[in-house]
Every structure is written in C-alpha cells, then in structure tokens.
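Intended use. Records such as the LacI family DNA-binding transcriptional regulator entry shown here are meant for training and evaluating sequence-to-structure methods. They are not intended to support clinical decisions.
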Amino acid sequence: MPVRVTADDVAKAAGVSRAMVSRAFTPGASVAVRKREHVLRVAQALGYRPNLIARGLTGQRTGLVAVVAGEISRPYEAWLLEHIVRVLSANGYQPLLLPAFRDANMTEMIDHALAYQVEGAIVAAGSVSRDIADRCQASGAPLVLIGRVLEKNGADAVCCDNIKGMWQLVERLVKQGRRRIAWLGGTADTFSDQERRQGVEEALAHYGLSLQVQRRGDFSLSSGVSEGLALLDSRLALDAIMCANDAMALGVVEAAAQRGIKVPDDVAITGFDDVPGAAWGRCPLTTVRNPVNETALEALRLLETRVHNPTCDNQVIRVGVTLVPRSSA
C-alpha cells in the first residue's frame, strides 16, 4: 500500500524547512519566486498534496465551500449544481458537496460542513430554517441561500422572481382563452412552491378567475405522471395544467399521451425553470427560464462580499425570469 507523502518529506527532498513548504502552498505568502517554484516542483515529483483540513485547523484558507444541493437526480437540481461547481472552480474554490436528500437533517449537514473549516456554504435547497442561518453566522462561516428567502435579517440569498414568472404564464394562457386551470404544486415546505402558487392565484384573480383544482406532487417527473393522470381523469374539463417545475410538467405531458389527450389542443401544460430537457421530447414545454448561471455567479459574489465584510447588511438578489413559449401552451 502506497505511503502518503507528507510536508516533512517535501521539505527534506527540497532542502528547506517545513514552514517553507507551507508558505509555498499559501497564496500571497512571502516567498521568493524561485524558491516557491523549486518547492512546488519537488512536491509534484513526490506526488504531494496539501491537507486542506489541516490548513483549516491552523487558520489558513482552505478554499473549501460547502454546497448543499437538493436531490440531484432531478433535472433542475443537477443543472444548478453543475453551474455552481463550475463557477466555484473557475474562481479558485473547491466545492464540498453535501446532497440534501428528502429525509436529510439539514442542521446536521451544515454542522458537518462547518467541521471541515469551510470558508462558506451555498445552500441550494428550498427548505432552510433561521436556526441554520444562525449556526453559520455564529461559526463565522458565510451562508448564501439559493431559491429560499428567510424573513428579515435571515441570510444572504439569491432567488428568481417566482411571482413574475407565474404571471407571465397565466397571461399567456388567458390570452389563449384558457379558463379552467389546474395547479400541480411541489412539496409544501419549499419556498419556490409557495411563491409560485401565490403568483398563479394573484394573476388569475386579476383576470377574475380562480384555480379549478389543486394537487401536489414532489417536483419529480414520476409524480407529474401520477398526479397528471389524476387531474386528467377528474372530469373537470380542464383546459390548462400549470406545474411548479418542468419535471412535473413533463410528467403531465406523458400522462396526457397515455390518455390520448392532445397537448395543447385539448389541454395546455406549463412548467417552470427551462431545464435543458424542456425543449425536447414529444411536446416541447412552455415554461419560464430560471437563469442558473446568473444565480451561481450572484451566490459567489454574495459569499465573497460576506467574507470581506462580515457585518454588512444581508442582501437578497432577485434574478430576472423570461417566458419561453413552446408547443405545450
């Protein structure tokens, strides 16, 4: 079994002190250029990599950023995670991924991340409590939420304009003459589901309409199929089904195909997020684009701002959304 190369091994081979090895791997440390290059060459030849956890224990920068993501088997979560990791890596950070499965204890996950001496945490999960924000702030680790806004003075956050997006979809449906509209929401405790349902109800009320029926899935494609079948079999003569995300909307499209119902002739179907798969399949999806790259960039900007100014006021960034009309509505 190979023996792990240590900083002492590098120091001995390079003919320098162990402290010099540490400085050579520390950005901004006072080391002559030739000396640093020499140490790094020796380290590379030996296969040495610095222990980031040990660096954190000595108070040095680790470059680690905890990324708490939702269930990454789902299209939007995987798509967002890809952009977060890409943005962090491009800016010299190493993401420490912590997947937040449905039954995960978010508080324990954040505590676990903080034990690694991370420089901050980006939480891309829809259900985060004030207690979690307080834990991060008490530890000195900045916390940035994606897709969730806590009440006043909760945490820095980036979130799309959910309500505006739903207004755009309702306006399109109403202009098409749709009047018997159903809502398929996601899990009840998620911020995006709450705001998107609010946007639908407000927009419909503006036009003197209301939802004919509401059902709830779990943001997955399979729940879109099962709940879509229930809606289509309900004898409510629905002419539109609005879904809280694209995965469920694609599931409803599949449910309509199973029942021989034409989309959009018999019923219009809309989603939200504009994940890559929304533009493909048997019926390209009318949806709202949730700009994930802009979201990832803003999250990193908020994180770095908090690192450099820990006492600054919390910021909430609302990124813009865009209606993407396609065949389904």
